[in-house]
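re: ur msg from earlier - yeah i can do the magnesium ion complex, just paste it... oh wait u already did. ok heres what im feeding in:
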Amino acid sequence: MTAPGAGLLLERDTEVATLAAMVAAARDGDGRLVAIEGSAGIGKTRLLTEVRAAAGEAGLHVLAARGGELEREFAFGVVRQLFEPLLAMSSQEERAELLAGAAALAAPLFDQSQLRLGNGASGDASFATLHGLYWLAANIALRRPLLVAVDDLHWADAASLRWLGYLARRLEGLPLLLVLATRPLSEGEESSMVGELLAEPAGVVVRPEPLGTVAVAALIADVLSAEPEEPFVAAAATGSGGNPLFLRALLDAFAREQLAPRRRTSPGCSSSGQRPSHALSPSGSHGWPSPRVLWCARPQFSVMGPSFGLRPLSRAWRYRPH
Ligand SMILES: Nc1ncnc2c1ncn2[C@@H]1O[C@H](COP(=O)(O)OP(=O)(O)OP(=O)(O)O)[C@@H](O)[C@H]1O
Ligand SMILES: [Mg+2]
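and the outut:
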């Protein structure tokens, strides 16, 4: 199972097998929860792409959403992302079917006129709303097995988290697979709700590991279209810590640099337009790795946090080809 068009997926056989087994279980009516936990860039979204493709192939209906750093105050923002497209595309008859029975308790949440009056957006995470949403999900799943995939759960709004917890505790016997991807937890009320989801006894937590040297070598060969020398692989593995996002950003910067048409005459970064400081200007040697490349790649490393400065990068990339 590899999602078409999603690029190389290295060293994730175990995770992919776990996810495939969960898709099969949900399809057969055995509701499951899988949490994918890992640091920025380790490959959580990539695994979600895989599980979405596998679910689609197995005939599951897929509802997807992602938390947004700037949308955490928007009550039920994630829940709306999950259900609104389906409800909007449904005929009146189908919509009435989906919102039948106890699911009707959630109907005001999707009623545009209520939203305009400010009622639907109040974040009323009452038992009635949570229960109504549960039945909406159940009604969809009972028509056709369902995957509910939520990315960037660490940024999800509190009301949606409350509902996901409510759903997670009621999956038994439902053809529904709930897959949640999150960065490691920090402080705060939302984090403790995410923590509860990760600790669900019936759930499985998948923690993608940093890539090993074999995978690093494969990725270098793929991105730079050349077989790398062993010391280069070692430097790349150390420098990136096996983090695929970091490694890709670094290799993309290398690839860009090699392709830059006026490499010698223009010391600026080809994409960002930033000029390197005097101390970091090209050395005039092989330029592999050129400090300029590292400098130009820096904006892409901001995701790694403030501790990821230029110095560790330079140290890691000290290797020069002969
Ligand atoms: N196992 C892997 N093999 C090769 N490339 C990978 C692998 N995992 C992820 N990647 C690539 O690394 C990059 C980062 O992956 P991804 O976006 O999934 O990280 P993430 O954990 O979701 O990060 P964030 O926490 O910032 O959302 C993507 O370009 C992805 O295609
Ligand atoms: Mg992601």
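cool cool. The longest strand covers residues 176-182. ping me if u need the other ligands too
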